[in-house]
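Need Cysteine desulfurase's 3D structure for a figure. Predict it.
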Amino acid sequence: MTTAANRLDIDAIRADFPILQRIMRGGKQLAYLDSGATSQRPRQVLDAERQFLETSYGAVHRGAHQLMEEATDAYEQAREDIAAFVGADTDELVFTKNATEALNLVAYVLGDNRFDRAVGPGDVIVTTELEHHANLIPWQELARRTGAELRWYGVTDDGRIDLDSLRLDERVKVVAFSHHSNVTGALAPVEELVARARAVGALVVLDACQSVPHQPVDFHALGVDYAAFSGHKMLGPTGIGVLYGRRQLLEQMPPFLTGGSMIETVTMEGATYAPPPQRFEAGTPMTSQAVGLAAAARYLRAIGMDAVEAHEAELVAAALDGLSQIPGVRIIGPRSMELRGSPVSFVVDGVHAHDVGQVLDDEGVAVRVGHHCAWPLHRRFGVAATARASFAVYNTLDEVDRLVSGVRRAVEFFGRD
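Structure prediction for Cysteine desulfurase:
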């Protein structure tokens, strides 16, 4: 929980986000509780990207003019800053357009028989029933392309990975899971899952989209082989994501996309490829977005990720407490703060999630409604859709109160006692 020693100056933080002052239809100030879908950006991120575009923009890694040099320096400095933020070495970070592309990159290359860790017929790929589609469908496709078998851990009644639902054997080549569920908020037991994978010689792929913006993350310390996260969920720009890969693995991997920027030599008969990370960054990269993402990492680091985590835990605890007291509201996910992160998903008996979302929108409260790109998980709980409030460093307890009041209004409007 947040203490006096690490309590944030939320007013100062909120002043960095101009959009939070917006008055929505109905005359209500925006309460933005949809950061699990996409986060808002502080002025520092907007200014960093704008300054780069106005003063130093050019094609990176090519040419001999000053703008090219400055753009290349900014791009590679961004890589260095982001690597430091997630406990990785600079050459272990590949820029992609989003986390979905990063996960597809890994899944695609693991089907390429030039890679000595490639998946083949009879092998097993393991994921979980909790996953966002971006960490499920690529593995379904890899299984289809290679003749491998897809298996998965089930989900407990409180929305966590059910470790008793699956045993691994030597056929397992990949274990892929989310650090935090984007629906239940459940925190994965990373140490245990990594240990199980290591015991059978499997690679570990981590979807870190819902953890990197909200808590201290160190990929080396976690011991995973690959990890992916998106810029737009951590106060950064859209159009950029990150793939972390252990250096030894990246060096052995063939490319995902081919063309310019990722080559070493080219003849009419064939080509050789640049070393990582350039090998996996074909074409003109998202330079200004990388600069903006690095600014977001520096912004969060200056606040302190321990303080961010503690502040958000206070918000989540208040939301769980308030929502659980409303008749007919059911939380989809753990109640214990030790087992969860930011997203709080819920259903209201007899009221469709979209109707709940509409009532909240009338109050200026922005939440996500639907299946959140996690259909199998919603089927597991027997619901078509949930409403989800997801928090970030700029949210307040007052906004949690507005969420709870809005849900109470929805219950009253649709005729529940």
